[in-house]
Specification:
Elements lengths: L1 E5 L3 H12 L3 E5 L11 H6 L6 E4 L5 H13 L5 E4 L5 H12 L4 E8 L4 H4 L2 E5 L2 H14 L7 E5 L3 H30 L5 H7 L9 H12 L15 H11 L5 H13 L5 H14 L16
Parallel strand pairs: 1-2, 1-3, 3-4, 4-5, 6-7
Antiparallel strand pairs: 5-6
Helix pairs in contact: 7-10, 7-11
Length: about 300
């Protein structure tokens, strides 16, 4: 098939290459002219045959919205836009309605695989009308991993990104559990080969996973993780997962704790933990660690 691809960063660029390896024609557009196949969106659309399929792979939020709005002015009835970024699932309905007024189809695709997707394939969770999904199916088949699994038409518009949101919430919890286990092994001064222990878990154990393999790889590159700051950002999907859990009265303590742990990582000297230390001192006389004289910051 012939497909347009907007956004040729780490994910988009590799997706273009994987599609081309399956002998699909990809017209990619990126703001960086050195990697772009078209001078602008209009040029990209012009190069595609009808019905046109354009896959948007740009950061979620305003950039995605603006890109889809621009495509809505360039595409015609029967064409399809795929949002493969990490958009919030509630935005999908707005995008589908806006494009639908012009007879343009919309498909939301949750994509997992990261920078390894070029070789391993991308897990795809898709939402949309079956007729629109069918127009993109050859691209889905090329991008997914080999085998029967790795692709699912999860439901109507929004279902793909909702599934990817929950996937990322689970990912938060898994990473946090591995990280806490690593810290305990390092802190206890009992295990002499921490990296070796973690590597041993990658075969035969009930906790083996690709994430664990990646932790082994990181430790091989930097055994003490000395070159990495303990600061962890979040892309938003963890927050959205917890909000949906609250909306549906679903207890999600593990994912919630993992999200909050990321917030803690951004505080060099947590105000909350200052308050906990002060309270423990007040009610139980527990010792507190004082800030050295001259290190007290003036009030903001």
């Amino acid at each position: 098939m012939e497909i347009g691809l907007v956004g040729l960063g780490k994910m988009g660029g590799n997706m273009r290459e994987r599609l081309r390896r399956s002998e699909h024609t990809v017209i990619g557009y990126d703001r960086n002219p050195e990697i772009s196949d078209a001078k602008d969106l209009a040029d990209m659309v012009q190069q595609l045959p009808s019905p046109k399929v354009v896959w948007v792979m740009v950061p979620a939020g305003d950039i995605t919205r603006q890109t889809i709005e621009a495509l809505g002015e360039l595409l015609d009835e029967g064409d399809v836009v795929v949002d493969g970024g990490n958009s919030r699932w509630t935005d999908d309905k707005d995008h589908a309605a806006m494009l639908g007024e012009r007879g343009i189809g919309f498909v939301d695709a949750g994509v997992s695989g990261g920078v390894w997707g070029l070789e391993n394939g991308y897990a795809l969770m898709v939402g949309g009308d079956p007729a629109n999904v069918a127009k993109v199916q050859p691209a889905f088949d090329a991008l997914k991993p080999e085998g029967e699994s790795g692709f699912v038409h999860a439901g109507p518009v929004g279902a793909g990104h909702f599934a990817k949101m929950v996937h990322n919430g689970i990912e938060y919890g898994l990473m946090q559990a591995y990280a806490e286990g690593y810290e305990l092994l390092m802190a206890a001064n009992v295990v002499e080969d921490v990296a070796g222990v973690i590597k041993s878990w990658t075969h035969g154990t009930v906790i083996r996973s690709w994430l664990l393999d990646l932790l082994v790889l990181a430790l091989e590159q930097d055994p003490q993780l000395a070159e990495i700051r303990g600061y962890v950002d979040d892309s938003g999907e963890g927050r959205w997962t917890i909000e949906e859990a609250i909306n549906h009265s679903v207890p999600a303590p593990v994912m919630t704790a993992a999200l909050y742990a990321r917030f803690v990582s951004r505080q060099d000297d947590s105000p909350a933990m200052k308050a906990v230390a002060a309270l423990r001192n007040q009610f139980g006389g527990h010792a507190v660690t004082k800030v050295a004289k001259g290190e007290v910051e003036p009030p903001a």
